[in-house]
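Before relying on records like the one below, remember that each one covers exactly one chain. Contacts with other chains, cofactors or solvent are not represented anywhere in the record.
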Amino acid sequence: MGNLKIGIVGFGSFGQFLAKTMIKQGHTLRATSRSDYSQLSLQLGIQFFRDVSSLLEADNDVILICTSILSFSQVMESMPVTRFNKSTTLFVDVLSVKEHPRHLLLTLLPEELDILCTHPMFGPDSGKDGWKNLTFMFDKVRIRDVAICSTFLHIFETEGCKMLHMSCEEHDRLAAKSQFITHTIGRTLAEMDVKSTPIDTKGFQTLVQLKETTVRDSFDLYSGLFLHNRFAKQELVNLEHALHKVKEMLVQRMNEEQGIEKAES
């Protein structure tokens, strides 16, 4: 299969970021969004639709959903399923959580529509100089048209991504331990208002960078990582326990030292 006709639902910064590479590869793109991106779409050579119904009636091979985690269910539930053009065969999501969209897509979409759940582990910042060696996770939830799915995945293979086939459940389990914890530490450092000092160690510079990177993402994204990943709650509890344990170790050492000092005096 050659070039795809891809309809993007949700044309914010992440949708635009993916679209630029897809256009560069020669795919035909259409987009729709709550905000009016018609002018930007015109500049990029993308047809912009004011409402999702018109986009779905167009002849698309792929519908790529680039909404936020928090608005995903609302967008999907308000989609006029009866308007799907029969040639629209593959639905793809790019959320940072995976069981949530998998469940919704399986529940809301007619059986004849294929489903591919994905998580590009990069964004406009980390992917600004290309996608080479950046991880692209995917789960072939329901695929009948192998050609369209393969051609879509080839977009990321061509750019040099590390292609990682993984179940949505396994993704969420690992993401709770990695991405969610990273964001939580970053948000905690922001609450503490950490800033560079004249005597920064390399380690502290890394923490300041983490704080700054984390708060650039919206709180909606962060809360979505918590609300729609069933493994995140336990990781938050684990983090609290770990901090408490470290504090106990310090207090114990302090008590031991004070005991030694008393004995010596």
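The CA atoms of residues 57 and 135 lie 33 Å apart.
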